[in-house]
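Throughout our pipeline, every protein is held as a single compact record rather than as scattered files. The record that follows is passed on verbatim for readers who wish to inspect the format:
___
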Amino acid sequence: MTTQTTPAFPGRFRAAEQRGERIGRVLKTVGRVGEVDEDLMALIGQRFMQRDEIGAALVRAMRAREDRVTMAQFGQALEHGIDTVHDAPPALADFFAHVDAVPDWVDMDLVNRGALAYRRFGRSAADVLLQLSLIGGYRFGGPTDLLVMTGGLSGDMTMRRLGETQKWGIAISEHDAMRRDGEGWRLTVHVRLMHAMVNHRFESEDHWDTAHWGLPINQTDQAATLGLFNGALLLGVRALGVRVTREDSAAVMHLWKYVGWLMGVDEDWLAETEREQHRFNYHVLLAQDDVTPAGPALAGAILDAQDTLHFHRFAALRRRYTRARLLSMLRMFLGRDGLRDLDLPVRLPWMAPLLLPRNVITHHVLGRTHWGERRLLAQAAKDRQEIQYRYFGDDAPQVADLPA
């Protein structure tokens, strides 16, 4: 009788390394990467096969017969604290004992400064997260294939799921949002459980190829996703002409370090500095597989969904403009090869010469004054409201309910 053993690395590991090197040239430079760190590469490969164990234990308890955790109990603990849950099951108590215990390294004043910097980036931050981080991430197999299987970013749900991501990012970046009673904190813990539930579901299904992709939601992919919200974000807004000071960079990194910890990312992969994150992101690129059919499917769904955005006036015209603007900015961020990988039309990057001068003036010149700072934040607040309206219309912006 033979026994099957789980491979140390999944088949996707370093399956398209030369392609990753080409895509990651900028990261190699800004991360000051000389030689590839083979010890780090080995960890990246191994952690494709590792999960958030604290979240996994809670989900197992939700599926158990004894000491079963209910969604109502989780919701009560999330909103009002574990002490308000009568006879809290051990797994629920253990989960909230962990997330409620703020690590010693968290500086909440620095977290709030990171949130302020993030708000100041305004519309540029939303652009980068959609175009460079999200759609740019579709150039690699694995998480994209999982998204297609869950239906999370396809069909009629595309805009709502994108809106939920924007809602989460907006919630995180409000003042004091990452304190225990803040909306950003609650939504982050909420999303952590959603990820654990998806992982539990697909781990047990035969049509998920663990041997090739690793676990459905694993430590490496979670850490890589975090890098899209901090390191890639900071590079992207600079490319759009936004001023990012050293203090801004340190504060934004600290904000997302705490978010990553709450999400269950391994603590040794929570970068303190932008350079550390760029170095890690470069190595993660080397570990990736090539694009799969899921990537073009998801990118095409987002492009098509521009026709469903909500506008108060001139909706048809503004939808066409938004679609053209998206393709133009994708050309700037992803280049011809990136657009072709995703089967998207290649357009001229005409938005760049329009955005750059405006951002340079507003962020580098006016933004250095108290008046300019106030104007930046006021405009950013309007932009955030408009973005949420585009996705949700008259419905209240929210993150999806947890599945039963």
